[in-house]
Amino acid sequence: MINRASSFLWNLGQFSTFVPTSRTMRLYPLGFSRLKVVFSNNSNQRNLLSDFGNRVQPSIRYLFQDALIFKSRDFKTRGISTETVLTVNKVLCPRRLSFDSKRSLVSDDGLKINFHLEASSEDVLTKETKPTPVNYRKLAQECSSLSDVLDTFSEAPTFPSSNYVSAMWTVAKRLSEDQKRAEKQLMFNHPAFSQLCEQMMREAKIMHCDHLLFSLLAVVKLGIPQNTRLVQTLLRVVQERINECDEKCLSVLSTILEAMEPCKNVDALRAGVWILADQQVWKIERVFTLQAVMKCVGKGAPIALKRKLEMKALRELDRFSDLNSQHMFEALAAMNHRSVTLLNECSKMVLGNIHGCPFRVLISILQACRDLRYRNVDLFKGIADYVAATIDIWKLKQVLFLLILLENLGFRHTDLMDLFMKKVIDDPASLNMKSIISILHVYSSLNHFHKCQTQELQEALASSLTGYLHHISSENLLNAVCSFCLMNHFPLALINQLLQKDIINELLTSGDIERNTHKLRVLAACLKLDISCHKAGDLALPPLPSTPFYSNAKVADALSSLLGEGCFLKNVQLPHNYHIDFEVRMDVNRSQVLPFSSVDVVPAAADIQSCSLSIFSTVVSPLLLPTSPEGVAFSDLCASAKADFSFSE
């Protein structure tokens, strides 16, 4: 009995050499031996078993017979929990043990002790100590407000924090404008909000690049001020990690910069996007990513980069969807690059699917055409035809906004303007003062009249505007009265209010004085032509300036490059206060431009006096000229500048 007890104590000491001393051992009176160990993964299991075999010395001679079990309670490492079971196939006697190639214990007489790995239900370390990352889509569905998301974060913060701000942005998109304002105020006052911001700044350098960019996008969309430490920190980290951006990250980054105001960090990041886009433009696969980059680079991007993006877009024309063609107008306008070929192809695609085009996209297309000085009559007519055919589903303000854009483009669609006129006559009370002034400007500028309805429209608008006499500003009243006069309608109540001395003095001393003076001269000329008005002589207007308001330097440069010096005159003053910007003399057939020096030295003969006198009227605007005058025909220049030709005998 004493020998058996001493053998037990000696074996216990030997086992302590390969079982960690910090672990506790529990003895169970069962009929077999079992050792429970927790491993992180299969490789750790294999390494530990290998180490186990190396550390069991040949001097271990006895195992425990029938009654003894050792169980390690806290033998833990990182990872998945498993246990190792030593199963004894028969009653063990004192004998030498060794390990075979399969990591089984083998005794002298061939007895094998096999190791079986089983899943443990007790110590699952990874799941207990490392929480599962939250899914922002699921969190956004479960939460109904921004505060709910912050409450969830405060209970158990997990990595990455970008999931929480993305969930907050998703929730905010479902709210109305009033709800957004209230929820944002509650968000800023929530005690967990500052904790979330601190965690985002700590995690910025270790989270994935796409998580970092989505965090910044959500922060910007949530309306967190751009000058805060959180936003500026994220911008700096994005600058440091910009080389990690793939196509998806480049698209997100472009969207972020498009929505942000200029500052040092934003400008530096935009310059980085220029370099990145220049390097990766040919690798971009998605058209939406290409358009996002075009919007991001902006008007200040190098012309070489703009042309490279244009070439990439032309290569992808076959892959353009209807949505791609609609958004291409806005993308080109964002970087102020007019590609006529690309715009023509996109116009065809827009006209082919005009009925599936939302109204806001139609407005965006017309705005881009105005900004790019792109004139496509077929496109304008197609859009106006579609709106005229579906005018009953649009609000008056929507149609009016479209008419204003068409007026800016110099396009008059008769059917649409007649239909809109009828709707205004039927319900003039639905219009506010600003809408009335805009309608008057559009119809007077485009000189649109209807045989039956024009008089009714003028009376309806004059009656509605008279109700705003005590609230209307002097400039708005001047604009409205000038529009009425150009339409040959003279509402006396509005005219008498405008011709008061205090209002005239206010117009001549404040605001845009030059513009107000010009309109007052137009008004005085209209009143003189109307026999029913006798107050035109009471207007004390300043004298006309001796020099023109605009130098028209771009027009002069274009003419110099096309015609050469000495082939035109500038700032020609005519009798009766008429002024023209440029004078060009040509032969009778308009095939040759004659220099002024050669004409002036020749004696006045009949054949010389019959030379044509071509005059550019004051409607010439530098905006109407091509940006690059080289290679532009003189006839094209005249046509684009709306030249008014007259001939002298």
From TrEMBL:
Residues forming coiled coils: none
Transmembrane segment boundaries:
none
The biological processes this protein is annotated with in GO are: mitochondrial RNA processing; regulation of mitochondrial mRNA stability
Q: Which GO terms describe its molecular function?
A: RNA binding
Boundaries of every FAST kinase leucine-rich domain copy: 436-508
Q: Name one GO cellular component term.
A: ribonucleoprotein granule
**InterPro entries for this protein:** FAST_kinase (IPR050870), FAST_Leu-rich (IPR010622)
What is the protein's given name?
A: FAST kinase domains 2
Organism source for this protein? Answer: Suricata suricatta
What is the gene name? FASTKD2
